[in-house]
Amino acid sequence: MKRIVAILSAVLFLAGIVVSAVAQAGSLPVGIVLPTKDEPRWLQDEARFKAALTAAGYDVEILFSQGDSAKEKANVESLITKGIKVLIICPQDGTAAAAAADAARRAGVKVISYDRLIRETASVDYYVTFDSVAVGAAWGDYLVKNASGKGNNLYLYAGAASDNNAFLFFEGAWSVLQPKIADGTFIVRNSAEAERLMGKAKLSREEMGRIIGQVTTDWNFAVAKNKAEADLTKNKRANKGTVYICAPNDGTARAIADAFAADRDVKKFFITGQDAEVASIQYIINGKQSMTVLKDVRVLVNDAIAAAVAYLKGGAPAKTTTYNNGKADIPAKPSAILTVTKENVKSAIVDSGYYPSSYFSGLQ
Ligand code: BGC
Questions:
Q1: Dihedral Cα 132, 138, 141, 146, nearest 10 deg
Q2: Cβ–Cβ contacts within 10 Å for residue 144, how many?
Q3: Spacing, Cα 94 to ligand 1 middle (Å)
Q4: pLDDT at 3
Q5: 42: helix, coil or strand?
Q6: Is the domain of 207 the same as that of 124?
Q7: Which residues of the chain register pLDDT less than 50?
Q8: Does residue 269 form part of some domain?
Q9: Does residue 98 lie in a domain region?
Q10: Same domain? 280 vs 153
Q11: Are residues 31 and 91 in the same domain?
């Protein structure tokens, strides 16, 4: 009997060591799924997640879907099997990801939609996001501020229609640009649908979808370049000269900017962007891209981790608003964005500690 007790207590003692070792490793029952490694934006998120999690002493798995909704679902299923309690997921395709969210919900896992909203399902607990409508409005504000007189050439480009954000960005841009298209300040040179709808301040999702369908880049640099080149071929010299380009993110902006810069009939252009990608910050310093929108990924990452920890503690994250995803109103707390131009690039990007100055050349 004494021996059994001795063996049992030795086993319990060892088990205690094992348990505390696991606790020390700080493994958090949270899984993260990001859309693709092929766009710098999501590598930013991976790096910022790793930095924040390491600083907090947590160890969390980050998987990439590589633009494939089937792989995304398999990633989610493997994380569920590993016992996660919270899923942080940025969907490749907002509607296709509903099945993965449903699978997580069935397994009792809390679902946090990260940056992009998962659509057409009630299985989303929280949406961690920037104010994406404000991003589009910032593009509109920038272009309007730099235009004077009537008949300015406007070229519109949009993100992928499978991404709910493409609609939010477009909604924001349209809210500022539409009155200026209607009053003749701008003439849209590459979307007959936008010209047709110019009298309508508030577009339905379906109407936005029709314009986006004509000017989508699919978030793909090559598609953006081809589309810009085709638009430049279609338009006469009179529709060029000084042009205003609403480009949906930095990667596509650089591709579109290069195409416009190569056209002899384009004398000057203003072009928008977003994400503050290192390459675009360099373009801004060099005067090849006019602006970007800084969405401080550190803020998004911290909000996502805080939301996950709140759920793990049995609570719920803070909300200031909701976003309708076609099925339900999803609680969210959108965070602020910042327009970055040549004028404020040093203070916004380097002095703020977002990137070190060594990443860039020619910064004044
Ligand atoms: C994100 C952008 C990103 C784009 C392409 C959007 O959903 O909000 O930051 O540039 O997807 O990946």
A1: -140
A2: 17
A3: 12
A4: 52
A5: helix
A6: no
A7: 1, 4-24
A8: yes
A9: yes
A10: yes
A11: yes
What's the pTM value of the predicted model, to 2 decimals? 0.93
Q: Using alpha carbons only, give the angle 134, 231, 160 rounded to the nearest 5 degrees.
A: 40
What is the 123 CA–ligand 1 centroid distance (Å)? Answer: 22
> What confidence score (pLDDT) does residue 295 get?
98
Distance of alpha carbon 147 from alpha carbon 184, whole angstroms: 11
SS3 content of the chain, % helix, strand, coil (to 5): 50, 20, 35
Which tens digits make up the pLDDT trace of 341-358?
Answer: 999 999 999 999 999 999
- Residue 261 sits in a domain whose CATH number is 3.40.50.2300
Q: What is the pLDDT of residue 27?
A: 82
Instruction: Please state the separation of Cα 113 from the chain's center in Å.
Output: 12
Residues with CB under 6 A from ligand 1: 39, 41, 115-116, 159, 163, 165, 219, 249, 274-275
Nearest CA to ligand 1 atom 6: 165
Domain span at residue 263? 132-294+339-359
* pLDDT for the residue 298: 96
Do 104 and 71 have their domain in common?
A: yes
Atom of ligand 1 nearest to the CA of 116: 7
Pocket probe for ligand 1: among 93, 165, 254, the residue whose CB has the most ligand atoms within 8 Å is 165
pLDDT at position 157 is 99
107 shares its domain with 121: yes
Q: How many CB atoms lie within 10 A of CB 95?
A: 16
Domain count, the chain: 2
One-letter amino acid for residue 126 of the chain: Y
